């Protein structure tokens, strides 16, 4: 078999098929080379492409038939351009055995070869030049129209391309650039032809690019006239038969993307710096307040110790005891201030222990109004606008009251010359703040006619310890605490303020269709004398305090310094254990882990937690797990005893 085709890939495909059929194949890349091989080797069958440079398939067959030594060799034409009905008559005139499409199944090609070997084809009977020309011209016109359409399509795509496009011959010599590349570089088309387009890569990279088959460059380029752009240039070399025939390159101006990314990084660094600044201010303010409180506690405890030493061996009269009791009262008040500050910080962070229940906003606002009237002074007039149709919400009522009272005090401070303080309630409707999930919400607003806030102050209004009040007249935690309370309840706090025109703080809280809880009498607080409590607390001082409080009230206490020790005591103790009082955060076994381990040792035993931070017990929404009871640290004697009694007496 002699296979004639100007493309090596086509010859390889034909060879693979013919090899499978058991034929020996010789190849030729052009018509004149094929004629020479046919005259020397006399193949049994020739498989020739129709369209080839120099001599097409028909001309090759005509030359083959004109030579007496090769005139009888059967010829098959192999084509991807002509349909059999387009060239059938011409093929018959040239004495071609059959026309086979290159897309045909291999079995069809093998069958055509076998048929050609069995049925020898007679040579052409006469000249067919005019028929040949008509057929070839028709195909050429078809190809030209297709090329025109393809070129127009390419031109439209290139003109509208958002990236620069370059194409040309070997050595990266550009013969075409699209309009976008002119926009990117600011140069003319003439300046960018040949090697002019390489201004899109740094000069030190150009020599390497000219010898690389494929290359990419990404970086900042100086294009002259003060134009610095970030460009991403990709070069791809085109090849034919393993030889370079040209190249195509794209140039993408990514300056806007890079600058936006740089701005994002700059904003992120600024945000991190602001966060650290906020943390520094927070830690500084906490240290300042706690140091003041500790100074009071340490100093007055020293005074008390000195007074007690001086009173040794003397009769403790009221005159002697009063100064000591006064000093102890100052220590107690300082401790309460510290506890309040800690609760505010936990509330701001959404980690304060809350006991949510269904409340009616109008009831809460009415209670706050009564409290505020005794606090804000006579120069401030309090007005309420309560919507009777407002829905219920589920929130910690005490915390909500505290938040509204903080806002009322802020409003009073913003109106040094007096004015109206308005409290209003209503259903939020569809106009919700950004970030809130869809749903029904109620809105509680606190409005004043005060000095208002400038935009830069408004941006930082809810930051802890940020205050516009004079030093000593505010902690900077009022708005931060209200913000934390609302967020922990699943809502949002929005501040609208204009300098000189007052401020409105709106609290959006999820509405609920649940009814208000029915009133129930509070259980008594007398000790359940003789009951045994297993106590787990890793802080020695707190463990001693709890043991003394419970023992003095008639309980028996089994004290452990950590969860693992408490578990061992429960396993060894012979008598009954009526309840467990456990810290939440402890080494070895924390409170929840201890409770889980005790399920098999003391099944059904009631567990009461105590903690200043109940994070391990909270859900993702900042609420306590169902069925969990916590007494918050620091607690008073009465608060602890009431909590223990209620937990043991509960069903």
What does this structure look like?
The protein is α/β, with parallel strands linked by helices. Helices cover 44% and strands 20% of the residues. It contains 19 helices and 22 strands. The strands form four sheets. Strands 11, 12, 13, 14, 15, 16 and 17 form a seven-stranded mixed β-sheet that branches. The protein has a five-stranded parallel β-sheet with strand order 2-1-3-4-5, with helices on both faces. The protein has a five-stranded antiparallel β-sheet with strand order 7-6-10-9-8. The longest helix has 56 residues, at 255-310. It is elongated and about 150 Å long. The termini are far apart. The model is unreliable at 520-527 (pLDDT under 50).
Quick rundown:
The chain is an alpha/beta fold.
| Strand portion | 15-25%
The major β-sheet equals: 7 strands, mixed
Rounded average pLDDT? 80
The count of DSSP E runs of length 2 or more, i.e. the number of strands, is: 22
Ends apart, CA distance between termini: 100 Å
- List low-pLDDT spans: 520-527
Shape: elongated
Helical stretch count? 19
Query: If you compute it from the alpha carbons, what radius of gyration comes out, rounded to the nearest whole angstrom?
Result: 47 Å
Structural class: alpha/beta
Q: What is the helix content?
A: 40-55%
Attribute tags:
651 residues; alpha/beta; 7-stranded mixed beta sheet; 19 helices; elongated
Write the layout of secondary structure elements.
Blueprint (H helix, E strand, L loop, with lengths): L1 E3 L3 H13 L5 E3 L2 H11 L4 E4 L7 H10 L8 E5 L4 H10 L4 E4 L4 H13 L10 H32 L3 E6 L3 E5 L1 H7 L3 H4 L10 H9 L2 E9 L5 E13 L2 E11 L1 H56 L7 H31 L8 E3 L1 H13 L6 E6 L6 E4 L1 H17 L5 E9 L13 E7 L7 H4 L19 H11 L3 E7 L3 E11 L19 E5 L3 H13 L3 E5 L2 H10 L6 E5 L7 H11 L5 E5 L18 E3 L4 H13 L2
Parallel strand pairs: 1-2, 1-3, 3-4, 4-5, 12-14, 18-19, 18-20, 20-21, 21-22
Antiparallel strand pairs: 6-7, 6-10, 8-9, 9-10, 11-13, 13-17, 14-15, 15-17, 16-17
Helix pairs in contact: 2-3, 10-11, 11-15, 12-13, 13-15, 17-18
């Amino acid at each position: 078999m002699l296979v004639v085709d100007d493309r090596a890939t086509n010859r390889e495909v034909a060879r693979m098929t013919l090899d499978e059929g058991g034929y020996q194949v010789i190849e030729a890349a052009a018509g004149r080379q094929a004629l020479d091989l046919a005259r020397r080797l006399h193949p049994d069958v020739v498989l020739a492409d129709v369209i080839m440079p120099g001599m097409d398939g028909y001309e090759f067959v005509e030359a083959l038939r004109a030579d007496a030594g090769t005139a009888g060799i059967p010829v098959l034409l192999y084509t991807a351009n002509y349909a059999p009905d387009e060239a059938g008559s011409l093929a018959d005139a040239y004495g071609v055995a059959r026309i086979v499409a290159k897309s045909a199944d291999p079995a069809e090609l093998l069958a055509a070869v076998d048929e050609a070997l069995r049925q020898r084809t007679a040579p052409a009977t006469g000249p067919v030049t005019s028929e040949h020309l008509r057929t070839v011209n028709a195909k050429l016109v078809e190809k030209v129209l297709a090329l025109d359409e393809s070129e127009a399509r390419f031109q439209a795509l290139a003109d509208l391309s958002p990236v620069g496009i370059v194409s040309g011959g070997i050595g990266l010599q550009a013969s075409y650039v699209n309009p976008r590349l002119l926009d990117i570089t600011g140069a003319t088309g003439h300046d960018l032809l040949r090697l002019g387009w390489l201004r899109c890569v740094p000069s030190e990279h150009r020599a390497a690019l000219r010898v690389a088959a494929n290359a990419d460059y990404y970086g900042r380029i100086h294009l002259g006239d003060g134009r610095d752009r970030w460009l991403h240039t990709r070069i791809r070399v085109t090849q034919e038969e393993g030889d370079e025939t040209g190249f195509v390159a794209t140039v993408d101006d990514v300056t806007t993307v890079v600058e936006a990314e740089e701005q994002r990084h700059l904003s992120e660094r600024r945000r991190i710096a602001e966060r650290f600044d906020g943390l520094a201010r927070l830690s500084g303010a906490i240290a300042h307040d706690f140091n003041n409180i500790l100074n009071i506690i340490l100093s007055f405890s020293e005074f008390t110790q000195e007074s007690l030493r001086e009173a040794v061996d003397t009769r403790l009269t009221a005159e002697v005891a009063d100064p000591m009791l006064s000093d102890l009262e100052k220590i107690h008040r300082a401790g309460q201030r510290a506890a309040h500050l800690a609760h505010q910080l936990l509330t701001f962070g959404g980690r304060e222990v809350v006991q949510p229940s269904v409340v009616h906003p109008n009831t809460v606002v009415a209670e706050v109004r009564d409290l505020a009237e005794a606090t804000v002074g006579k120069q401030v007039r309090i007005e309420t606008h309560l919507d009777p149709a407002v829905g219920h919400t589920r929130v910690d009522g005490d915390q909500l009251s505290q938040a509204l009272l903080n806002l009322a005090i802020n409003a009073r401070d913003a109106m040094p010359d007096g004015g109206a303080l308005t409290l209003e309630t209503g259903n939020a409707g569809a106009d919700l703040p950004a970030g809130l999930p869809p749903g029904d919400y109620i809105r509680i607003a606190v409005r004043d006619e005060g000095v208002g806030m400038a935009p830069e102050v408004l941006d930082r209004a809810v930051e802890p310890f940020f205050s516009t009040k004079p030093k000593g007249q505010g902690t900077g935690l009022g708005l931060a605490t209200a913000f934390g309370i609302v967020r922990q309840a699943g809502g949002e706090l929005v501040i609208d303020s204009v300098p000189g025109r007052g401020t409105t703080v709106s609290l959006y809280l999820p509405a609920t269709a649940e009814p208000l809880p029915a009133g129930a009498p509070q259980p008594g607080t007398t000790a359940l004398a003789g009951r045994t409590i297993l106590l787990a607390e890793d802080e020695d001082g707190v463990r001693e305090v709890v043991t003394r409080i419970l023992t003095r009230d008639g309980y028996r206490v089994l004290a452990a310094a950590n969860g693992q020790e408490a578990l061992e005591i429960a396993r060894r103790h012979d008598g009954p254990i009526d309840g467990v009082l456990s810290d939440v955060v402890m080494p070895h076994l924390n409170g929840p882990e201890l409770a889980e381990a005790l399920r098999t040792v003391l099944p059904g035993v009631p567990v009461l937690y105590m903690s200043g931070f109940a994070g391990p017990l909270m859900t993702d929404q900042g609420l306590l797990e169902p069925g969990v009871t916590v007494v918050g640290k620091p607690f008073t004697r009465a608060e602890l005893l009431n909590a223990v009694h209620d937990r043991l007496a509960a069903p």
